[in-house]
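Worked example 2:
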Amino acid sequence: MPMTHSMRYALAGLLLATLCWSGNALVARAVVGEIPPFTLSFWRWCVALLLLLPFVAKPLWQHRAALRAAGWRLLVLAAIGIAGYNSLLYAAAQTTAAINITLVNTCLPLMTFIGAGLLLGEWPQPRAWWGMGVAALGLLVLISQGSWNRLAELAFNRGDLIMLLAVADWSLYSLLLRRWASHLLPIPPLALLGMLMLLGVPLILPFYLYELAQGAHFSLTPSNLAAIGYTALFASLLAYLAWNHAIRVLGAAKAALSNYLMPVFTALLGWLLLGETLQNYHWLGASLIVVGLLLGTQRASLRAKTG
């Protein structure tokens, strides 16, 4: 079946979201010791909300009936998608390496594939599983840098367990977006994101205040302000809008496969911004990931459960 314009836009959105979140992971590691995790999460969403509010204030009022109808579902989505995931990721980055975060993230497609079957009745066909397997192989090539001995040297710690919880949190957010699509569809994407932010920021506030009470502060340096600005504009506004749209069009299981592109984009960003060299294993791993992504996101690769 030929790919529609809507699917092309959704796939382009997945690429944009993954690119933005690859930068977010780099920022999270870069500001360790500079900005406490809940502080970064709180101010990220505050700035994003201030940027978005002028554009969504009127739509929020116009669609207040649909927002009331969605009710508690919006609060759940805000708790896990706005307050939960990024706070957990920033907390994990305090005590684990970027390569471990990437490795733990490989659990996301598997969690989402299984969750799509159990919660949505959307069981991926063999082609999608093959796509996930090929992409996972490409990811292992990147992580191992072409040497399988490197995998045996990896060590895991508390930060990795926190990241695993973050991955489960994001998988649930994606699945619930799909499951509650009929309740959320009347709400425009910008208004939906604005409402989730309005609900999510107060949920982060107690943890931010706790950090302040423990003496955790950050300096208003240009680099710290740039980190908050990046996470607010790119990792929050642009990435969330693109991801939410992709979930509506492609489904949670297909969208989750784009997670394998994060190490590819991280390597490209390192090449462009830091002057790091791209090795043969980068090209091999990236090629396998792209092939797996294309294989797993074909329109025929997902069927609804019957009976």
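The beta strands are 122-124, 302-304. Residues 300-307 have pLDDT under 50 and may be disordered.
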